[in-house]
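User: I need a structural model of Putative tricarboxylic transport membrane protein from Aminobacter aganoensis for a docking pre-check later this week. Nothing fancy, just the predicted structure tokens so I can convert them on my end. Input:
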Amino acid sequence: MSLDNQQQEKRRPDWAALAIAAALFAVAAVIAWSTASHGAGANYARVGPTTFPYVIAIAFFGLSIWTAIEALRGDFPEREKQEISPILWIIGGLAAQMLLLKVAGFSIATGLLFAATARAFGRGPLWKTIPLGIVLAFVVYVIFAKGLQLSLPAGPLEHLVF
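Assistant: Understood. Predicted structure tokens for Putative tricarboxylic transport membrane protein:
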């Protein structure tokens, strides 16, 4: 009797996977609708600009069906408990970068994102990772802004050096 209960527990639908399947289906529908609403591309060619988005939509649709079947069968492995602290560090770092990008410039804002992400992964104290992140971001700034002539937001550090 307990073996029957264990099989019933195992065959219970995985609701998180069903939600993922629904999201995949929604993405497939949005891609297909968006591609269809843009009108016909080049009608003279069999493979035109609308072909690839339709292939992607079909792939997402297939993945959604596959995920739903696996979820209903209960074939997904048991997931580990989610840790919220690292997620909050990364989200906080992204928010800090977005808020400080115009004010502090690329190097400082991205250095703070680097430090928050490193903290989320359990690496180094902030007093080490913030300066390291700023130095690495400044190198990236120099490569992209000066070497490739791309426009990145400059802040006090960039104005001090250039």
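Before docking, keep this in mind: The longest helix spans residues 15-37.
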